């Protein structure tokens, strides 16, 4: 929040008040944020958005692992479980390439 506002303390305090009110409302409704675990397998992780930011994997073992959570996800808790309202946005390692720039495909 600080990076988007000027040094005007009155404005900052107003936004902080709004954030607290919204957080209280989310808590009362059972809405919570979540973040997938770093180094978990993207393909088997629930609640991640399609089309992640992808960077080249440094090794075959790192392919499709989550490197960073860009934006957290949101889920609604209920007595019968939880419903994902918004998927988390993540950065992952893509396919590994050898030094010649060729993709290494294992069968």
Q: Short description, anyone?
A:
The protein is α+β, with helices and mostly antiparallel strands and 107 residues long. It is 20% helix and 33% strand. The relative contact order is 0.19.
Observed structural traits:
three-stranded antiparallel beta sheet, 6 strands, 107 residues, alpha+beta, 1 helix, three-stranded mixed beta sheet
Radius of gyration: 19 Å
Please summarize the sheet with the most strands. 3 strands, antiparallel
Low confidence ranges = none
Chain-averaged pLDDT: 86
| Count of individual beta strands | 6
Distance between the termini: 48 Å
- What coarse outline follows from CA principal-axis ratios? flat
> What share of residues are in beta strands?
25-35%
Percent range for helical residues?
Answer: 10-25%
Structural class call reads alpha+beta
């Amino acid at each position: 929040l600080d990076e988007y506002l000027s040094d005007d303390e009155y404005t900052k305090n107003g936004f902080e008040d709004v954030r607290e009110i919204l957080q209280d409302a989310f808590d009362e409704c059972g809405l919570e944020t979540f973040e997938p675990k770093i180094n978990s397998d993207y393909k088997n992780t629930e609640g991640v958005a399609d089309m992640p930011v992808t960077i080249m994997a440094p090794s075959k073992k790192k392919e499709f692992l989550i490197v960073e959570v860009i934006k957290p996800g949101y889920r609604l808790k209920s007595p019968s479980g939880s419903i994902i309202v918004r998927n988390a946005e993540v950065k992952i390692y893509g396919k590994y390439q050898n030094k010649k720039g060729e993709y290494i495909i294992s069968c």
